[in-house]
Design brief:
The protein has about 220 residues and is mostly helical. The chain has 9 helices and 3 strands; from the N terminus they run ααααααααβββα. A 3-stranded antiparallel β-sheet has the order 2-1-3. α1 (about 10-15) crosses α2 (about 20-30), α3 packs across α9 and α5 runs antiparallel to α8 (about 145-165).
């Protein structure tokens, strides 16, 4: 799991999210976000911090933070890694996703050249993770994920990549619709029939959050 150099406690988390500590406390009371690390749950994991930053941005558009509970619950569901347990690093996500994509292609009878190309890519991805796992043995194992899990992992990777400054990610919704329906893309997009479309460039959002904390842009 990726770790921040220092724990993210209340004051720094609020600073990164662009809100006051009191506003952050209110979001916690509403169940919009929650400190999830430490013996008494007093500081924020990297994954929870990302959601707090998005929630802080959304408060610019809603005076009543109570309105954020449902849309943030939906967003949390969309960007959460499909396997329970510790959140993997970005490189680990990419390696695991590529493994399941390869196994899907294999089981669907993809031609040999396609499988060989995917397998080469798989070795490169696991090489970045610096694991001692036998990639060929993993590639011969049974599939773990269905298509819904593959789709969920793809979105989680997009979101994590934006948070790390690696890739673009646009979080889009019609803020006049109820309930909100989020859509997440790697490039700008529009929602058909949207009355008031909100598009958040996640990569820029997280970059600005790091600046507010005093980290590298």
């Amino acid at each position: 799991m990726n770790k921040d150099p220092k724990p993210l406690y209340r004051t720094q988390m609020a600073k990164m999210a662009g809100i006051t500590p009191v506003q952050l406390d209110y979001l916690v009371r509403l169940g919009v976000v929650a400190p999830d690390l430490g013996d008494v749950r007093k500081h924020y994991s990297e994954a929870e911090a990302r959601l707090a930053i998005v929630a802080g941005e959304l408060q610019r558009f809603y005076k009543d933070a109570k309105s954020l509970k449902e849309p943030m619950d939906q967003l949390r569901c969309m960007v959460t890694w499909p396997e329970r347990g510790l959140v993997p690093s970005y490189d680990e996500m990419c390696a695991q996703y590529s493994l399941e994509v390869f196994k899907k292609a294999r089981d669907n009878g993809a031609v040999k050249s396609v499988q060989e190309n995917l397998l080469r890519g798989l070795h490169r991805k696991f090489g970045r993770v610096k694991t001692e796992a036998d990639v060929d043995q993993l590639a011969s194992s049974a599939r773990k994920w269905d298509q819904d899990q593959l789709d969920k992992a793809e979105i989680a990777i997009l979101f994590a990549g934006a948070a790390s400054g690696i890739s673009d990610c646009f979080i889009i919704t019609d803020i006049n619709s109820f309930p909100w329906q989020w859509e997440i893309y790697s490039e700008p997009a529009a929602i058909d029939g949207a009355q008031t479309m909100l598009s958040i460039h996640a990569r820029s959002l997280f970059k600005n959050a790091r600046k507010r904390r005093g980290g590298e842009p």
